[in-house]
Amino acid sequence: MVSFGAGEPDFDTPGHIKEAAIAxxxxxxxxxxxxxxxxxxxxxxxxxxxxxQGLKYKLEQIVVSAGAKHSLYNTMQVLVQAGxxxxxxxxxxxxxxxxIKLAGARARIVETREENGFxxxxxxxxxxxxxxxxxxxxxSPANPTGAVYTQEELEALGELxxxxxxxxxxxxxYEKIIYDGLRHVSIASLSPELKERTVVINGVSKAxxxxxxxxxxxxxxxxxxxxxxxxxxHTTSNPTSIAQEASVAALNGDQKQVELMVAEFARxxxxxxxxxxxxxxxxxxxxxxxxxLFPNVKSYFGRAYKGRVINNASDLASIxxxxxxxxxxxxxxxxxxxxxxxxxxxxVDKIKEGLDRIAGLMAQIK
Length: 366
Ligand code: PLP
Hints:
Its EC number is 2.6.1.-. Helices cover 40% and strands 15% of the residues.
């Protein structure tokens, strides 16, 4: 079995981060903390925002939660309710849609185009806005497409956001996993007005290979941050004290291992992309970030493998799984069943083995 399903780095959490957690346990930092996070961690997060994005936040504008998913959930709960619409560009990460529904709001899904690198255009955004629209979800670098928005693209979307007085959730969890010299830009950094309307979501899960530690954070205007903290106060309370201490070490410590991890991801991306593009009839956008490829396999629809007709990417993914034991995630999970997602958070040997099998199988589709 070869799995290209992983949504997390295959690297270990760096040693100095683990040591910080162990030291925290020994020092008895095992009690309740302030609901929105310990001060040293909020300071580290504020410093990160200022150094990386030129964004200045006060400590009260930061809320630390149990992973970026929790930060997103809390944010959705406080920003929207029944009767509101949320613009969700597709393909999208699976949990946004469910979180919109959990908040009682309605998702307005907007299909982006492969030709545009799966990035929402101002025309597509304008078309989707109506009097009920309250919120836009942006995710750059994106899961599952790897799309990275440029400053100019964000500025153009920003004009419409201000014109229609929308709020934005900007999920920047893959910020550090970016290639080809691209620069991550946060829409919140473009103007004070956009900063006021944006909740930036980030966390330590992907950059520091800390998915199991469960630390994410939101940065927002004062009233929104207060509402998020209030909600958290009556639901989960603070995220784990020990994981918070470890996250301070992650953010303030040596960043060399992040660079090494990204360099290795870049190497794998190159290889996997080449192997996919070598398969006849497959197209694939070159992703600027994250650790996924999202190939278009539409040209195989209406054809058959050993008598089994393929109507969509889910059919093809099932055949690949059953026949050659390689797991890919059908695009339907992300809102588009013409594609599937492959994660390259696994070794080059595994990528080679898995792609040999997929290419061999696809060559037999008649
Ligand atoms: N946002 C995106 C786009 C993701 O892909 C993920 C995890 O897969 C998350 C948020 C959640 O991150 P965390 O593990 O910190 O909750």
